[in-house]
Amino acid sequence: MKIEHPYLMFLGDAPDELAAKTAIGIKQWRPEWCVAQLSLPGCQADLGLPEMSIAEAKAAGVKTIVLGVANRGGIIGPAWMETLLAAIDAGMDIANGLHTRLSTIPELVEAANAKGVKLFDVRHFDGKLPVGNGEKRPGKRVLAVGTDCSVGKMYTALALDAEMKKRGMKSTFRATGQTGIFIAGEGISVDAVISDFISGAVETIAPANEPDHWDVVEGQGSLFHASFAGVSMGLIHGSQPDAIIVCHEPTRTHMRGLPGYKLPDLKTTMDVNLMHARLTNPDCVVAGFAINTKSLDDAAAKKLLAEVEAEFGLPCVDPVRTGVASIVDKLQEI
């Protein structure tokens, strides 16, 4: 799979910024590939990119329109079709990270075949995967876990990988979701893998390696989220982590999309994730906490990070505000 850039980031009718986290992540880590954005009426997300029509984007040299929305259920809405057909007619490829496959929409497939453009369904892996075996393999792995969905697990993993590379450490970011795949250029979106093969998929993308090489594995979901705990469990067992990083957003009043479920506290999150991680790696430890303090002012954020660090005796950072250097220091001790 080779997705051509530059990109036009399609925001559709995203109801909030979290719904556009795919686009936000790509723009954050691959800004040089992102030429413009295209929003539909009612869109409440904004990347800060120029707003362009299909015709304007084509004139600006765009090769691919990226569906940058990660909506609940991963559906391609009928309101999007006019825009997607116009993109195909303009000769653009479409890259899609949603559960719904472009290849299952006859109107798009017919148009793409007629124009000779490509439809990429990056969330779906059609290759053969093994069943996980849990056997110890060389190399080191760190996994981001969370109190909830959409709390910064991917950002934390990318920041760790960048900091490790800056220090000359051997490190590879291992993408397990659609946004990570757009950023890394490879990976397997594990939430679309048949449940029996999730741990095997993670063993495949984070294989045996040199003893001093770190695989930084992108986390998904949360063990405490009633909708998505299954994929989180498979990731934990398949990654066989030497260390986990607990990610959290402190202003949430309930699990994302589940008003009836409160977020777990950090101690419970740490203990439950460690218990399950030690099935495949009895030596797994918590190496720190990554708190998304975007909704707090500087003073409140600094106070919270200091309190968590004092309570647990482990590094506590906001990857955006403070960087992740202290967590990498801790990982180098492992």
From TrEMBL:
Domain D-glutamate N-acetyltransferase-like N-terminal intervals: 42-124
NCBIfam families tied to this protein: DgcN
Segments passing through the bilayer: none
InterPro entries: DgcN-like, DgcN-like_C, DgcN-like_N, P-loop_NTPase
Pfam families referenced in this protein's UniProt entry, alphabetically: DUF1611, DUF1611_N
Family annotation (Gene3D superfamilies): NAD(P)-binding Rossmann-like Domain, P-loop containing nucleotide triphosphate hydrolases
Residues of the D-glutamate N-acetyltransferase-like C-terminal domain: 131-328
Name the UniProt record assigns to this protein: EBNA-1 nuclear protein
Superkingdom of origin: Bacteria
PANTHER family (UniProt xref): DUF1611 DOMAIN-CONTAINING PROTEIN, GLL3100 PROTEIN
